[in-house]
Amino acid sequence: MASGGDVDVSSVKSWLESNAAPLIPSYYHTRTDSNGRDDGAHELAALVPVIDFSLLTSDDPQTHAAAVRQLGQACQDWGFFIVTNHGVSENLLEDTLEKCSDFHNLPLEEKKKFCGSYDPLPTIKYATSALPRSVGEDDHYWIDHLKFFNYPNQCNTPHKPPGFYETATEFCKEMRGVARTLLEGISESLGLKPGDIIEHSAFDVGYQKIQINLYPPCPQPDLVLGLPAHCDNGIVNILIQNGVCGLQVKHAGKWVDITPLPNSLIVNTGDDLEVLSNGKYKSIWHRAVVNEKESRLSVVAAHGPQRDKEIGPAPGLLEKEKPLFKGYTYDDLVRFQLKGVSPDMPRPLDAFRINN
Hints:
GO molecular function, one term: L-ascorbic acid binding
Strand content: 15-25%
Radius of gyration: 20 Å
Family: Belongs to the iron/ascorbate-dependent oxidoreductase family.
Domain Fe2OG dioxygenase: 206-305
Structural class: alpha+beta
Pfam family, one: DIOX_N
Keywords: Iron, Metal-binding, Oxidoreductase, Vitamin C
Order of helices and strands: HHEHHEHHEEHHEEEEEEHEEH
Largest sheet: 8 strands, mixed
Number of helices: 10
């Protein structure tokens, strides 16, 4: 197959399996750096914050306060951190990855049943390669993925393969609990009451979106990306993955590998938290790189506000400072994102900045 040919790739995994020695179509050539690793990035990787969840939930006031400060520092300095001792069953995390792998191993025709017609805000969607026009209408990325909104309506959770629904439902419940506790600590770190951000965002009736990403082995990994540099919607997002690394975060101007500890969770702050914190905790650029030998599987549980609720900076912060953002809803943000971005407005969130 010639590079740059008119190729209909409806699944990267299936396309690879049907081509013994594939040449990557030119529209996958989206990587602009030579090797994806900056000088000094290895040293920075060792500095990625680690939050001990058991200290955050400690009944000892001093222990809890110290953990809250550490959490706030992680949000401010990195926007990404690793959570240990989170209390979620290791068996559940392993089962979740196994069931998600089973989904991607379904026959392509089974997975295509979840494609449906184009909808800018789908409740469930299986897709591959292309991302919204905001990152380039003609650019494709080395990824197959399933997205579905699990909360507040669980009817979007697939019932295939066998056991997927039950495992996913339990995983989603546990991730939501972790996210809620983290938000209480984040709220405290901002000088607010523990429930302020939860209340202002209507988190308890807010959305939970699950994205299951498969990055198959790539014959030419130096040419392609699994996902381009982007910032996430949502308040806090939690990721688990198999033993294959590929997540990179932009920190201090360098692309830094995020390597999780055993039985840990990776958490990042999203656009909505940047707004709720009035710009103190920023949503951070990150991307996914691929490799030639192994498939990478990641499962992201994104947690956000009630989708039709207008949010802005937390009122408690505005007692002493001016708002940096005007109000918007999640659906407003996504629809603006799908319109595309311009060089002077690299993120959809910038459209809601005041005096920008």
